[in-house]
Structure formats: structure tokens, C-alpha cells
Design goal:
By secondary structure, this protein is an alpha+beta fold. It is built from four helices and 18 strands. Strands 2, 3, 5, 8, 11, 13 and 14 form a seven-stranded mixed sheet that branches.
Amino acid sequence: MMKQLVLIVLWASMAWRVVAQNDDEPILLANPSFEDLPLASRPPAGWYDCGFPEESPPDTQPGAFEVNKPPYDGQSYLGMVVRDNDTWEMVSQRLSRPLEPGKCYEFTLYMARSMIYVSPSRVSNEQANYTTPAKLRIWGGAGYCNKAELLAESNLVINERWLQYNFRFEPKQYHTFIVLEAYYKTPTLFPYNGHILIDNASPIYPVPCKEEVVQAPEEPLDETSQPQPQPTRQQTDEPPVAHTPPVLEKETVDPVLSNPEPKPEKPKILKDLDRSKIKAGTTLRIEQLYFAADSDEIREESYPVLEEIYEFLRDNPDVVVEIGGHTNTIPDPDYCDRLSTARAKAVVDYLVRKGIDPARLTYKGYGKRFPIVPNDKHSLAARQKNQRVEIKILSMGSN
């Protein structure tokens, strides 16, 4: 019996040493240099296509779509595009061992862009140069193409020469798969044609969690780059403070000689959000409300319409409303439910921070259950109409 107990203790000790040793070893990727026979619409060996149905897969470059940039390492590299029809490219693979919550990791790869990446536009069907800068997002998940947690994202890849990009992962859950995703500049109002090139990925190294990794700097855009939207103020926990002109000393004006014209009122965005035009059950689409792509982050351009809603609720304290979120019909139902709920809640949170009683506000995500125009995944206009946030009057003091 004692002999068996000693053997069990020795076995447990050896197993613990193996686990501890594995914890310090890097997590390996298959084909990290993206080596394969260069070919359009086929990702390099070891990388699984996670793109949209009926869209072409990523490319093994160079040589496809007039891209001729030499590789940074080996003989080939990965090319992924974002498109003007609101689709983009992704690849995925299983990790050699999981990323673990509560631990930190470092990961590097090289990225660049080509001045030529010619392919037909998905919207106009005319030849287009997919050169507007895009960025890389890195996800962890539990299966191929599963984007459970955003681990890191890069700056816009605007450099034409290969640069090393450094990332730090601090996962909040276990991940056995990784997803590399090309994505648009955020925030952006409309999708566009762009691309990123990726080469020479490193293993994923466990590191102490106190160190900081500095992201690779962006290089200035050259004159041949397409113009980008100017960056906007990042969202904070507090609503934006309106900037008002300084108060000046009043001048003495003769009312007989002076005949100032009345200042015109600013046109309302929600013209039907008027007590005389609504009743319990009325539903209005919140126009000019914008979110960062794939996010519940409210864009700065949305504050005027949110202020209109706030002022209406402030001036009508007996009104109770529901904020309802809706998505387009492309993503899977669970994703649509989560995103629509988060966006509706973001609007309610804004109004609460402004001082509206939370008891007068409810929110709900309807996902893609109630499109207002027929489902057409090839129509950007249809998707934009279906992807919306509405305000519904639940009750009023007079009815």
C-alpha cells in the first residue's frame, strides 16, 4: 500500500512538472509564414477560410490581383480584403494548446499593404483597386471561425514596407482556436474596398502580465492613398459636453434703430417625436444614429438625435418608452440578438446618464426577426434599413 502511495505521489509530481513546463512553452501555429503555392482565392495551407458565403476566400500572395510585393519571409504570404458590400475575409486554425484566462501572451507578425490589389467591386461590378487601408483583428474562440473574444487589433495598416506589429493577449476565457480578421477603419459609416498583407507570424509566448507592448506606429499616408475619415473623439462614460461660445458683455443697443432677425431654429431630426403626433404604441425609427461597425459604441455624429430624445423625455415626464435594436439579416441569430440588445442598451444608458429616470426606459434586442425591407444580402441599402434602433411609446399620462 505504501509503495502504491509513493508511486501516486511521484506520478502527480511528474505530471505537475510537465504542466508547469508546458505553461512556459510558446503556443505554436501551423504554417506561421503562410507558405503555399501563390494562388487567388485560396488561403495558405493550415489556415481555414472563415469568409462569408458566396464570397471568395483569402489569397496566397504574391501574384494574385496584380499584387507583386516580395514576401518578408519565405516564398508567400496571406492577403485578405474588406469589401464595399459589407463583407470581409478571415482565416482560423487550432492552437497547439489553449490560451488561458488570467495569463498574458505576446504575439508578433509582419504586415504591409500593396499599392495595387485590383478586383471587381461587389457593389458596382466595376474594376476597383482595393487599397484603402484596413486593420487586423485577432479573436479567440472554441472552434474554427468562432469569435468569442476580441484579443487584440492593430492600427490601420497604411505602410507599404513590411513592419512588425506587436500584440498582447490577456484572455478572459479559454481559447483553443485563433481567428485573424481583416476589418475596416472604425468608426466608419460605409464599408469600402481595402486589404492587408500578413507574413511571418511568431509563436504566442507566455509573458508576465505587468509588461506593456507598444503598438507599431502608423506611417503617414502617401498621396496615392484614398482619403480617410478624420478620427473622432473616443467615447467616454459621460455624455459629450456641448461647447458654447463665451459670454460677452452686453452692448447698449437702441431698440428703435436695431431690428435683429430672429435666429432660425435648427431643423429637427425626429420630426414626428412630438406629443401631438404620437400615442401609446407609436414606434419611430431613430434616424442619424450611428454605431462603430460590429459594436455598441455610439458614434459622435449620433449625439444630436440623442439630445432630441432626451429633451422630449425631459419635457414629457409622463412618457415611458422602449428602445428596440434591430440588425440586418446576414449574421447568425445569436450574434444578431446580442448586438441589437447591446445597441439598444447603449441608448438607454446615454439617456440615464443625462438624468432620465431608468423606470421610464426599457430596452430590447430583436435581432433580425423584424426586417422592414425584404432580405437581400447583396443590397447595402436594404441592410442599412434593417439595421436600426427604434423608440416605442409604451405609455403616456393622457392615454
